[in-house]
Amino acid sequence: MKRFLLVIAAIICTGQIFAQKAKVTKPVTKQSNSFAIVIDNITYEKANAEVLAYRDALEADGLSTYIICGTWENPDQVKAQIRKVYAKAKNFEGVVFIGDVPYAMVRNAQHMTTAFKMDEKKFDKDQSSVASDRFYDDLHLEFEFIQKDTVNPMKFWYKLTEDSPQTLNPTFYSGRIFYPPMLGGDKYEAIAKY
Prior knowledge:
alpha/beta, globular, 9 strands
């Protein structure tokens, strides 16, 4: 009985910790369409005024804008938060990822591209996988987790499952605002200026 209670307590505590890692800020205005900004906690803290100005500009353009902020551990966590907002939001039309939001490298998905074709058996997964935010914006597709990259904490491999739809039909549009490390300098300052 004690073991059972300890397991239940651990599950509850883990759930609370997981839930605290993401925060959703509701839109300031009610518009006929909605949108979301997905951002990591550190970027949000360092570029807070600029992100809020961006949200205000989107709302002035007619998009009720949610801000989904978190300490992102994997793409599944991000996707779960997006799904929650998508289910509640009115006419959810898109999302932008800002800063350090995990991304999916997808196997079995070269048919999702127009020009990228490479033998996945001959070439290593770094070369022959497709980096794709269809992981987030096409809610019809089914993915299976493979592994997390050992060097880049934002990079995760998934496989497009065989029983998933094999054609793209994004549920909403998406984009990224990301500062490549090879450019040097302060990435938070650069993102804030964008």
